[in-house]
Here is the input.
Amino acid sequence: MHKLQPNLAPKLVSVIWIVVLAYYCLAFLPSTLRPIETGIDPSWQFGITYAVAHEFTFGRDILFTYGPLGYLIAGVPLTDKIFYSILIFQILVHLSLSMLIGGMILRAKTNIERITLFVSLLICFLSGSPIDIEVLFIYILLLTSRHILHQKYMRFWAIGLGGLAGFLSLTKFTLAVCTIGPLVLLLLLNFFKPTGSEPRNKTNFLAITDAIIGILTISLIFSEPNPLHGLAKVLVCFLGAGLVGYIGWLSYPLLARSNWFKIQIPSLIQKLMIKKEFKPIKAKFNRLGLSSYVFYITYLTGLLVYVFIFSSLIPFLRGALEISSGYSSIMISSTNNGLTELIISIFVLIAAYFILLAVLGNSYLALPLLLVLFVSFKHSVVRQDAGHIWSLAVIAPFLVAVCIARVPRVRLKKFSCLFYGSTLVFFYLISTFTPLPANGNTLEPKAAIQNLLNITVHLNRAKSDLQAASMNYLAQERLPAEVLEAIGNQSIDIFPDRTSLVAANPLNWQPRPVFQSYAAYTTFLDNKNFESLSQKPRDFILYSFHSIDSRHPFFDEPKTFFYLFCNYQFSSKIPNQIQEVTLLKRRSHPICALPLEGQNLLVQMNTPQPVELNNPLVNRAEIKFKYSWFGRLCKIFFRTASIRMQVNYVDGTQSTYRVVQDNAQNGILVSHLPRNKEEASSLFQGKLTAQVKSFQFFTDNPWLYRGAIEVRLLPYRISD
Here is the structure.
């Protein structure tokens, strides 16, 4: 009996771990979804789901950082199909993460690994982390598997992880960066390592190609509003490549007689695979090898042609990149109470830890994780709100825990615990700045049982409760009968972002690509909105005079807004504001003539620029801000400084607004800037109120910008 005791103890420990993990998994199981609400974030959550439900094409009809599969992680239950899709996806993600970490804990050889992994999982659950973080954790665990670089399995891992990355890239642009980037970096590090035999280098090279094929294949299928259409395109590529490969098979006897085929082609391939001196080799290309390579190259070429010419994938990525780039410049929010320094400190500390691991021979593990850490740091340091800060606080300990589990030496694991402890300290300090997000879950056994019942026995009741909650939120958004009667089934758009009006009312919403005005950060995005509105004018506009972060509402999408100002007016049927919303109707003809002769100016920071006072005219200013070399580096690796515009009105009052510097070149209105909704309403009635006498720009960090500001003033004559 005493001989069996040592064998029973590990089994008992394993059973305890299984019970604990299963309990926590059930306690935090996602058993319900978010209802349709009102506000900035709920407006885009509804918008991307509405786009999917109405089969809009992301990249053409919609430009956003969330893609055609984004509703799975941030959508709202518009239909039963969407409700079940979101719920099943989130449950699968939650269970998969719990089982992956549970398996690592059970296989772990040290208590250090077990404790750090479990604590990281618990932090993720307790903080109410969004589902995209759990998805990212799953991908990181797979990417850092010890078997991924095994020559026998590497190509299977590459194409599988590539396919998963392609799928996730269509949910959220950040996930595209945090999955495709680390995967390609890992395979490149493996390919360019100092030593390697010819067969090994060939496998490494093909693994990179396999990953690209996996990414393109899956993303091409799901980038279409109807995935069956995307699947048809992939099948065309596959069958076409098979036909060409078969032709190669038939042509082999003829080609095999050629010395050029026997010597030069293998040598060329060898040069692509190996990074040392090359010598012509005599290698016989067998029939199967020839047809396989022909099929491989043709299939990859077909995918690239479809993606770059016929697919909406590239426009979607371009739009998401524009929004992400502008986000770093515009969405700056800092509390200036030590939080920025705390975020920088933890990033520098953990980045130094990853670099140290790389120097010690763990570059395959450390450098891909460093890329993930940097993306999370960039989001949190730019927009210091609770969501982004807590994301970094959750991701940092998890990344260090993965390193502890994957590094081979026990001494290095113990050393890594110092850095893991620092991430826990960071987590605690963050809680002193902003409270832990409430996720509605508790550790009580009753709550765990209720979660399980909600997705099984009581699923229909949970869905009904969710619909009731949505109706309760949307009750305040219902428009009066006379407004709905005036609009009818005619096309309408919402400015700037109150899409909850669409959820609460039967409206024929035709959204512009960037359907939230504040997110049209760059000239490219503003131009896309202008093209959409001018080429297919909406019959009506529901307009609210508001913006975010102390911006003037007219600055958010300046070119689009000026078209709106010139071509829309108060509806005669609904002349007054209703529920803070103005109903605008398309004019029979625009009131703005072509611009008169413009004036080019060079304006210095903190220098007032007078505005011509001529009432029949309005002035736009095309403003070009130039970053210094240091400013460009800060925009990429850190953040820029906001630019503000002090406006001096004719009546002697002053106001200060934040400028959207990356789209100001499209021409912001500077002669008349309403200070409230009443003045904005007068402007749309043809009354040129809130006249500006002068304006000037200033910033807290002028060294981030270069030289004088280029301004081109364009006067427009306004007709009745």
